[in-house]
Write a structure and sequence with these properties.
CATH class: Mainly Alpha
Number of strands: 3
Radius of gyration: 15 Å
Number of helices: 6
Strand order of the largest sheet: 1-3-2
Shape: elongated
Strand content: 5-15%
Amino acid sequence: MDHVTASRTLSALAHEHRLAVFRALIAAGPSGLAAGELARGVGIGATNLSFHIKELERAGLVRSWRVGRSIRSNVEVDAVRRLLEFLIADCCGGKADLCGGIFVEVSSLCCGSAEVSNPEFSS
């Protein structure tokens, strides 16, 4: 990931509602959430949700697909991984032992390693 892509990705997350949507989708895992459920969970209307989902899709953080009459969305885990790798690539000059366990802590939060909770979203 380059600086421009990282800036674009972080900009997409730099909004209260988009960050809440992203966190809810991270917590939901690979199956994602239906648009209506997601909108209710983060407390925004359908039109507003659609706008924010599109911004997250443009940044490559989220993908959406149709299931019957519903739209579901989930997080693009590879994009999140690339962003995290970019952000911590030069941590402590590349000396992982000096980074205070940040790599272990981040990986322990990933899907399947620990339950991810989002207090802003309750289904």
